[in-house]
Amino acid sequence: MVLVNMEWATVWWVIVVIVVGWFWYWKAKFRVEKKYGVPKGSLGWPFIGETFDFIACGYTSQPVSFMEKRKSLYGKVFKTHILGTPIIVSTDPEVNKAVLQNHGNTFVPAYPKSIRELMGEHSILQMNGNLQRRVHGIICRFLKSSELKTRITKDIENSVNHTLASWKHKTNDLIYVQNEVKKITFPVLVKVLISISSVNDLNFLKTEFDEFIKGLICLPIKLPGTRLYKSLKAKERMFKMVKNIVEERKLAMEKQSVEYKRTNISVTDAVDALLRDSDEANERTPLPLDFIAGNIIEMMIPGEETMPTAMTLAVKFLSDCPVALRQLKEENMELKRKRTSSCDEYSWTDYMSLTFTQDVISETLRLANIINAVWRKAVKDVEIKGNLIPEGWCVLTSFTSVHMNEEYHENPYQFDPWRWEKTGAAVVNNCFTPFGGGQRLCPGLELSRLEIAVFLHHLTTSFGWVAEKDKIVYFPTVRMKRKLPIKVTDNLEQL
């Protein structure tokens, strides 16, 4: 009898705790909203907020429906609670622009704990102020240099042709595009960053990187055997290898310091650019070697995630739109005939001036939404277009909501590369932000366009193909469910 009474007492206290907790949660919620006047919206259930609905929409063909439903109820800027964080969501392109441009003094990056753990305290994602501007400027200048453009165009061509050559022996087999394009993108990016050409070193780095990147979206638990723990160990092994290369390069530069200070010595890769960026006259001290090694690893992420996905989805969208594929083939065959007849090598300008090809790339980036949003945190109260974002609150600028809004893009769910004939393929404005914006605008945006253009050129002028049915998965990252299986043929007219 006593035991039964104790069990009922336990149940009673659990109920009391839940009720009291619920009461204080809603009281605190009301107090915060009243104090700050935050945008309308719902924080959902205690602790979990609206996370389940957010994730569920991510597994549908229209993940933006989570944003659209709340936008219709509360307006273009609203509050919610997802992934353990109360957050203000903006689906307004003007508000997004203001958030992206007001960087450092008003907004700072804010990312899930697992990402912060993996990237470390000196991560590009988290650095602010003068250091962020310095590093961003170094990489931008390097990637825009004429020497790199000439060299990297050839490197991309070699990587693309090497991969496509293996397809000629697979005409009876299924080729999984998403796997194949990774063979192109990762070696190219690693060469740009650190000039690794050894097959063994590249394979080691690729294996460890695959293990490392799995932890970007996981529970922030570092116990042995957990996903985060394994990813951190993989990063340690990568870091050791990359830092050794950075140290060797530093010693070589010190031995030839006079030569390296000459302005006519070209920069070979990102490591070289970061090591050489010091100026005693301007009190700009050399960047620490640990800092350089860690950020080189972080800059590899586009070669593994965003670029392969964009290239794969370009093939997917073209397969579903024969008219667009035919026009793209005609444009690229014309370029191939010109280069064959003149015996000249392809140049960066050749690929970037393929107007319709660049339109296809723009439309792929708009429709795919590989980078769907960025997270920022307000370091002080700020009001944008009548929307108050209080100090300490996170704000999510939703690129997907803008890209898929018929107010800005007619028939947004339709693959329509011709829409860019009016605005220009490379235009960057409030309503088209696949590479972000503001001070953190992706420095590799032109390199990304080049790589996709080279791939599409050599693919469409070498093969025809038939794609099997496949669907796009949007959560936790954008990818093809079956990795986009296709069968290729030497018949260029076959779709």
Strand content: 5-15%
Task: Give the helix tally.
Answer: 21
Strand order of the largest sheet: 1-2-8-5-3
Q: Report the C-alpha radius of gyration, rounded.
A: 25 Å
Mean pLDDT: 85
Secondary structure: helix percent: 55-70%
Number of strands: 12
- Uncertain stretches: 1-6
State the end-to-end CA separation. 77 Å
State the oligomer: single chain
The biggest sheet, with number of strands, parallel, antiparallel or mixed sense and barrel status, is: 5 strands, mixed
What class would the helix/strand composition place it in? alpha+beta
Shape annotation: globular
Features:
495 residues; alpha+beta; 5-stranded mixed β-sheet; 3-stranded antiparallel β-sheet; globular; disordered N terminus; Cyt_P450_E_grp-I; 22alpha-hydroxysteroid 23-monooxygenase; metal-binding; 22alpha-hydroxysteroid 23-monooxygenase activity
Describe, in plain words, how this protein is organized in 3D.
With 495 residues, the protein is α+β, with helices and mostly antiparallel strands. Helices cover 55% and strands 9% of the residues. The protein has helices at 2-36, 51-58, 65-74, 93-101, 113-119, 129-143, 146-167, 177-194, 199-213, 227-255, 257-261, 270-276, 289-298, 301-304, 306-319, 322-342, 348-352, 355-368, 399-403, 420-423, 445-460, and strands at 77-82, 85-90, 107-109, 175-176, 373-378, 382-384, 387-389, 394-398, 464-467, 472-473, 479-480, 485-489. A hairpin with a 2-residue loop joins strand 6 and strand 7 (387-389). It is globular.
